[in-house]
Design brief:
This is Carbamoyl phosphate synthase small chain. The protein is α/β, with parallel strands linked by helices. 20% of the residues lie in helices and 33% in strands. It has a ten-stranded mixed beta sheet, with helices on both faces. Helix 7 crosses helix 8 (244-252). Bound molecules: glutamine. The site of glutamine (GLN) has 11 residues, from strand 16.
Length: 361
């Protein structure tokens, strides 16, 4: 079926429509990863967004049971140049077309994604919608795009992700990629996942050694009601924030966040670790950033993006609290930053009063 992506500035990008066919509006963003599309499709941070892949051929290794970051896709649409309908991989269970049709997510293929990405880069991110060509006269209501995305994607109930491990981490789920829990488990932690709206008392009752604040969708300012709890927990426990978790920590301690022109979404964003002066290649997916202006004295910048200088990491001057804008759990992507899970373990170890043996490589 012929379909079209219509941008809010009126630009139209025709293609072939498969998957879900109802009108789905969202913020149109692009991702530069060559692989990792299954992790992108299942990353809850993309809720409410239409993701355009810049790499021309997507889907050639199918989707499997192991690489999902969540049980379902949350994104509003997926746009590719070419989508492979005959994938080949020993783990492959579904094609891109089958997976997105099953979850009723529109898949628009055969799109001139190079032209589309140029428009987004020039104008900054734009809202848009995908529809069958004949329905493209309907006026979408962009004002109706949801703002309570974190509460939509967060787990409704607490659950134990892993039951063994020396340190107990409560993972506050703002839309967590499963690989954060997997990485913590691999590092030797017992992980309990709790809803985004959990109170400090509920978290404290779990007797955690540390708090992990996850990634998640939307504008961090939409989560203002969660900030007092984030601050209370960070003042009491070793705390590690990733992406949205980093932004919420920053806001909770008095920093500001701002929307970026078109964000960072890809598997090879260079970040400078200011302490070692080494460059890490990182996986990123964010449209907001912590602003340099008005950064409180208590927060020290630990990492910066090499391309645009934006804040990529923070630590608290006095508390056992640190956070990064990129994804050390790196799915998809490189693993340069995985050492941060060891750093988190070290903070929990210190809090327990044990001697620290650094495993940093
Ligand atoms: N991956 C994330 O956690 C993204 C954080 C936030 N939604 C942003 O786009 O900046």
């Amino acid at each position: 079926m012929k379909g079209v992506l219509v941008l809010e500035n009126g630009r139209r990008f025709p293609g072939l429509l498969a998957g879900g066919e109802g009108m789905k509006a969202g913020e149109v963003v692009f991702h530069t990863g060559m692989t990792g599309y299954q992790e992108i499709l299942t990353d809850p941070s993309y809720a409410g967004q239409i993701v355009v892949m810049t790499y021309p051929l997507i889907g050639n290794y199918g989707l499997n049971a192991q690489d999902a970051e969540a049980k379902r896709p949350w994104l509003a649409g997926f746009v590719t140049g070419e989508a492979c309908s005959l994938p080949n991989h020993y783990l492959q269970e579904k094609t891109l077309h089958e997976y997105l049709a099953h979850h009723e997510v529109p898949l628009l293929t055969d799109v001139d994604t190079r032209a589309l990405v140029r428009v987004i880069r020039e104008h900054g991110s734009l809202k848009g919608y995908i529809v069958p060509v004949e329905a493209a006269t309907e006026e979408p209501d962009f004002s109706a795009l949801p703002r309570d995305l974190v509460k939509k994607v967060s787990t409704p109930i607490s659950y134990s992700f892993s039951a063994e491990g020396e340190y107990h981490v409560v993972l506050l789920d703002f839309g967590a990629k499963e690989n954060i829990a997997r990485s913590l488990t691999t590092a030797g932690c017992r992980v309990t996942v709790m809803p985004a709206t959990s109170t400090a008392e509920q978290v404290r009752a779990m007797r955690p050694d540390g708090i992990m604040l996850s990634n998640g969708p939307g504008d961090p300012l939409d989560c203002a009601d969660l900030l007092p709890t984030v601050k209370e927990l960070a003042e009491e426990f070793p705390t590690f924030g990733i992406c949205l978790g980093h932004q919420l920590l920053a806001l909770a301690f008095g920093a500001r966040t701002e929307k970026m022109r078109f964000g960072h979404r890809g598997s090879n964003h260079p970040v400078r670790d200011l302490q070692s002066d080494k460059i890490w290649i990182t996986s990123q997916n964010h449209g907001y950033t912590v602003a340099d202006a008005g950064l409180p004295d208590d927060l020290i910048v630990t990492h910066r993006n090499v391309n645009d200088g934006s804040v990529e990491g923070l630590k608290h001057r006095d508390l056992a609290v640190f956070s990064v804008q990129f994804h050390p759990e790196a799915c998809p992507g490189p693993q340069d930053a995985q050492v941060l899970f060891e750093d988190f373990l070290s903070l929990m170890k210190e809090r327990k009063g044990q001697h620290l043996v650094t495993t940093t490589v």
